[in-house]
Design goal:
Growth Hormone, Chain: A, transmembrane helix, disordered N terminus, transmembrane, 19 helices, MFS transporter, about 400 residues, single chain, mainly alpha, MFS_dom, 2 domains, globular, cell membrane
């Protein structure tokens, strides 16, 4: 094991794992799948919920906004509040909270109760991600960390490709309450899976506010946080409006938008695992390639995406590049802060979730005040700025 790998293991557990716990990695991936599905499921249910609970679709959108903002706060706060609590027990408790929160959503008699249940979903998302994002170094040997991280983050792509569409379809056929109830049942399954296969995970270094603050003195962490903010904000400012872009800029029929977004998700899943393999060889170069690809894909859409074929091809290229973002940047944080993986990861999760909301908000303002094309230029400019930031960290030995 390398000295960096030893330091990481010592910082995140009492000793480096002697074997690979792939069943535990898979159970955590199931957890991330459900978290992302729970966060985004209301997007496809806004009209039904608004009609049933007598609120506008704009107000119903709080079901998405609230948990994202709460997750951004909970990501660094939950590890601080639980102190030295065994991380296995923490993950079980958070998945239990997810189970109860979605059951409460299914039974909510009013919109106020529904939004309150979504606050609990946000707490579960932020807390679970803060711990789960750094678990690969606890569950597998050093050589397999990039692969395990890719599997854990594969749950994100799977949620976009399968979880949200299937949940929306179920809600359309059986009602939105059934969709939330099914999500609660699946969260219970994930809880039982974690209970069965997750080993004890002692917190050898409790996260304190001082430890969180110290991460900003680490140049590698600062670059990772900045790159995350720029990439995710830029991506969601443009991707939030990808449907009108496909129709208005590429002339694609509305009936083909759904299948193309499915293809985007599949490309993202492929990109996740391609990036995972490349990260094992050179994290810095891999993240740099991802940022450069995103910086090119979004502006090129305006030049080469003016036909249905060009628009579809660039959308898939965009999805392939963005699919490597989560696993790439999380691996970056692990390498940049080997002595404080959980603290650095919790900050990363907070910025990631906050950037989703800010990106969508910025995109909406730009589309309303300027043009649809402007959000694609913004997305490309943000990715280019991230690439320049990543390039500046090329001398960091841990990231090579």
């Amino acid at each position: 094991m390398t000295s960096t790998g030893q330091a990481t293991a010592q910082a995140t557990g009492r000793q480096a794992p002697h074997g690979n716990r792939w069943s535990a990695v898979t159970a955590v991936a199931l957890g991330t799948f459900l978290l992302v599905t729970a966060e985004q499921l209301p997007i496809g249910l806004l009209t039904d919920v608004g009609s049933a609970l007598s609120v506008s679709e704009g107000t119903a959108g709080l079901m998405v906004t609230v948990p994202s903002l709460v997750a951004a706060i909970a990501a660094p706060l939950v590890p601080v509040l639980v102190g030295g609590m065994n991380r296995r027990l923490l993950l079980l408790a958070l998945m239990g909270l997810m189970t109860l929160a979605n059951a409460a959503s299914a039974l909510a008699p009013s919109f106020a109760v529904l939004v309150s249940s979504r606050v609990l979903v946000g707490v579960a998302i932020g807390g679970f991600w803060a711990v789960a994002s750094s678990l690969a170094v606890r569950l597998v040997t050093t050589a397999n960390v990039p692969r395990a991280t890719a599997i854990i983050f594969g749950g994100v792509g799977a949620a976009n490709v399968f979880g949200v569409p299937i949940g929306t379809l179920l809600g359309g056929f059986s009602g939105w309450r059934i969709a939330f109830a099914a999500l609660s049942a699946l969260a219970l399954v994930a809880l039982l899976a974690l209970l069965a296969v997750l080993p004890p995970l002692a917190a050898s270094q409790p996260v304190r506010p001082r430890l969180l603050a110290e991460q900003f003195r680490n140049p590698g962490v600062r670059v990772g946080i900045l790159a995350t903010f720029l990439i995710v904000t830029g991506h969601f400012s443009a991707y939030t409006f990808v449907s009108p872009a496909l129709q208005k800029l590429s002339g694609i029929d509305e009936r083909l938008v759904g299948p193309l977004l499915f293809a985007f998700g599949l490309a993202g899943m492929a990109g996740n695992f391609v990036a995972g393999a490349a990260l094992a060889r050179n994290p810095h170069r891999t993240v740099l390639v991802i940022t450069v690809a995103l910086a090119a894909a979004m502006p090129l859409y305006l030049l080469l995406g003016r036909t249905p074929v060009g628009g579809a091809a660039l959308l898939i290229a965009w999805g392939l590049a963005y699919g490597g973002v989560s696993v790439g940047l999380q691996t970056w944080m692990i390498k940049a802060a080997p002595h404080a993986v959980e603290a650095a990861s919790s900050l990363w999760v907070a910025v990631f979730n906050l950037s989703i909301g800010l990106g969508a908000l910025a995109g909406g303002v730009i589309v309303d005040s300027l043009t649809l094309q402007a959000v694609l230029w913004l997305g490309g400019a943000c990715a280019l700025a991230a690439a320049l930031a990543v390039r500046s960290a090329r001398t960091n030995e841990n990231l090579r």
